[in-house]
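Bug #77: duplicate submission created two jobs. Keeping one. Sequence:
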Amino acid sequence: MDEVTSQFVTGNEAAIRLAVALLLGALIGIERGWVAREKKSGERIAGIRTHALVGLLGGLAALLSQTVSEWAFPLLLLAVTGLAIAAHRARMPYSQDFSITSLVGLLLTFCFGALAVAVDMALAAACAVVTALILDNKREIHGLLYKLQAHELDAGLKLLLITVVMLPLLPDRGMGPGDALNPYEIWWMVVLIASVSFIGYFAMRLGGAEKGILFTSLFAGLSSSTALTLHFSRLSRQTPDLGPLLAAGILIACGTMFPRILLYCLVINPALLPPLVLPVAVMGGLLYVPAFVIWRAHRRGAKVDRPERHRNPLELRMALLFGVLLAAIMVLGQWLKEWLGDAGIYLLAASSGVADVDAITLSLTRMSHGTIDLPTAVLGIVIAAAVNNTIKAGMAAGVGTRSLGRRVGLPNAASLLVGLGLAWWL
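Kept job's structure:
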């Protein structure tokens, strides 16, 4: 009785998977049929019925490969490929259509049917939906290629090179003096800096100055507000009319750093939140409020709404220089810790805050479990955040225009003084 029940369940599951394979083929067939809906019956190579049947055939091929012979799937795939090529070649003299997109879509339909039966229905469904979207958006995708510039494509490929190829190859461990240098973490910072400039370029090009600056600022606040400050400061000299909006964007990115700090503490040591939440919240508010005021006052006055087309979207040279600076700060922080011991916590926080807040925040949060007391950890985190925002204000003043430095520097100074006062008092 148990064997009969097991076979029944297996048969039901196979039937469900074959039904999914049929429906996924029908999905792609609907899109293909919609594109060729004006053609007469018989002029289409494959419509909804053919794609649905090919999806079912792919599922049956996978099922037969599991139960009858492992050659079933490759032989049926070759058969479908041969039929599709023959039909396409017979149609070419009449349509002069040399595109093989429909052929590839048909073969993918066969594979999705097999994937639904033999591997994972959810994965097959996801692949089928993405394929249908790509097929349906032919005009939009081709339109993007016409809008894309050669230097923009080159910048995108370089970003993929440093991210997908180089980053995974780097060792994720401490090296150098006191194991202070982690090649993976340093290069990840380089990637973040380069990504901010890249995303900011296209955000402003596609959405205009107002929407592009806002989107880039929020993104950078969750990753690297320092990178955004450097990028926006350089941009303020190239496009002075965007100065107020760029200043508001820098303040938004600087303010978004504080919720990120609270999130780290919530995950690692929730006991640190009560003494930390007030100074951090006040410091963030003293940046958000001026940013909102500047944004409201100047968002309609920007005269430049797109970056210059010849400008490099990928500020790779500046990202590399900043990576070198980060490595130097890591070594300096390690020396201070070894030289002064526990008394060097604040100096370590200040030196680490020059380049990044995340590393020192994570370290002090972990140390607050027992190595250091909660007030020391809170003050160290606030010092690092205050120093980091001070450095960004200095970047805005030194790299950007004078007005940008003033708009960024005054709120940061208020945030620094009030935050340090609250942390010391608590």
